[in-house]
Amino acid sequence: MNTKERNCPMFNKLKFLSLYYTFHLIKPFKPPVPLKPASTILLIRDGDEGLEVFMVVRHHQTDFASGALVFPGGKVDPQDRLHEMRAFCDGVDGINDYSLSLRIAAIREVFEECGILLARINGENFLVNAEQLKALEIYRDALRKKEIYMKDFVIKENLKLACDQLHHFAHWITPEMVPKRFDTHFYLVQTPEDQIGLHDGHESVDSLWITPQTALREAKEGKRIIIFPTRMNLKKLGENKTIREAIQFLNSSSIYKVMPKFVRNGLNVYLTIPEKAGYGKINEPLEKVMWWN
């Protein structure tokens, strides 16, 4: 751990929380805090050095993963759950309402946070192009401020959300003893070629395209803060060299629900996840795990 990382407010908070949760392993929170459904998107493209993913740096004042390099995403909004939204989505046959709300939230969040819109003009086969997106940009901040909701947006602009472009990548649940818990589904998406991602300047203050390998290396070197679930999914994504490989891998595999477990060995506490989840053998000392903030 270098000096810069030790002086980071998030690091100091994580150090405190590691001790706090170690104590509560003896007397866990009862009952567990209810889960909040959330969606995360891995926007990918083929780059010169291999597969790249779009990531943002969270604002230091956000209530989750402050200052960390993360994938875009957020909590499901009540408006994302409206049953009538199904009529404004492509590729949702056989998907239940809960799964549909997660996909709608994912598309909304990536538009708000990155300016990338996974939608089509009703009746068209292709995603909105750069020129069409420019005309829709005014809705980005309005959605974030809840001055307008997705239903009104798609009706007014005659849009259909491209849920068929989302590939289910992973499913993670926050451990039971943690006071802020999420039921998070990760989706892989091939980024539209003529759309350019850009952070919103509110929840996120920077953005970049980066290979999973580079992100993991910079985290190890102390140049980046990357929380545990993000790091694990970067590792999983990095096993593929191209978009085609990544999608083929998902089509041939199943999604395993991951809820990390705490294991105590004497005075030491470790975080583990099942090896069959596809992330390898994970057994990390709690004080080294970037999870909470």
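(the above was protein one; protein two follows)
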Amino acid sequence: MFVRVVAPKSQYVKVVYPSGITSKLFVNRGATGATGAQGPIGNTGNTGPTGPQGPQGPQGTTGATGATGATGATGAQGIGYTGVTSVSTITIGSGLKTFTLVSSYAGAFVTGMRIRAIHSDTPTYYLEGPANYVGGGTLIITVDKFNGSGSHNAWTFVVAGEVGQTGATGATGATGATGATGATGVVAATAPITYDSGTQTVAIDLTNIAQRNTANTFTGLQSIAPSSTGTTALQVNSLSGMSVNPLRLMDGSGTPVQRFSVSEFGTTLIGSNVALAGRLGVHTGTAATIGAVIRGAAAQSADLLQVQDSAAGILFRITSAGRPQVNARMGIAPSGGTSNFGATLTVADVTGGANDIQQWQNSSGTVLARVLVDGQWVSNAINTSNNYVRLLEANSGGTLQLSRMTAAAGNPGANIGRLYMRDGTTAGTLKLVVRAGAAGAETTILDNIPQ
């Protein structure tokens, strides 16, 4: 039997029996005895859990800098923006501009980038804007900024900076002194320009235009459009008694090239220094200039030109095919007056033409006579003015009418004969003779023909 004795520091001792019965024993504690020899150290127990980390200590001093390492290899160079060119012919102005790139090389340019195309020969001329498309050898710029004018075909390209925001408007400067008042101009009875406003806006800038100013100019292309087809677009009124032209068009040297007179049925003069008496005068100015051109439309059917009488009757016309038609007798006057009979009418055939050179027709269009392309004359009859020689076509009898010759005809030449009438052997008669060859004598065919 084992008895466990628990000895607290008190004078009682608790005794625990195996059966669970406990009892107390009174123990008289004596003096503490001497400490015995230390027993052997037991085995090390398991490591307990790590305790919480304490606060970080102060940072130590920085160590010395190490030696610089070796330089690495240089990377490949980028393609950049140089060497991008185009020879496309482009007109300077705003809007979409398409450039075909030389050798299809676009460099580092990409769509969306702001690009400036510079004229290679005149660097102050340029087109600038965002790139609408870059690729396939094509560069398209939506131009919103440009300088210069004209069409050019040599371009280089650079990157352009974005346009900054408009700054605040500065303070208005002091008003300058008022200039001297100019001379008062002549005021017309009505406004010099009248128009009907409509959907179109009349854009005329009169800011710098004053009356009696010889340097009057418009600032650019102006347009005047009426509000409907029944209204007048532009009206210029002359003063009563006005002797000069109310409207003139001048060339760059100040010479009038077209003028309008002051009368109701005014004269229109076209050309340099025109001084003609007709209602419409055209002066060519140079010997090599065409005086007037009427050009028909595609599939023209109406006449190109008409001359009419007071009742709108057509006196002369040039058809759509270019054929002149005269509805009355056409006369050809001599060039040197009434005593000059040198007036001529020349009709030339087109080289290789197959039509008649000239035709005479009646009112129904029936051909009465014509001249063939080889010069032959074809007609129903040929008469002299006194009918001494008259040739008729076969269906009218086929007659040949000859008048009497008072002298023998000359020799006609080799292989040619001449037939003519002479006085017969018997007085009051005729004889029919022929002369042939280069030296032939008259040969009588029929003599003593009664008449």
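Reviewer note on protein two: The two ends are 209 Å apart (CA to CA).
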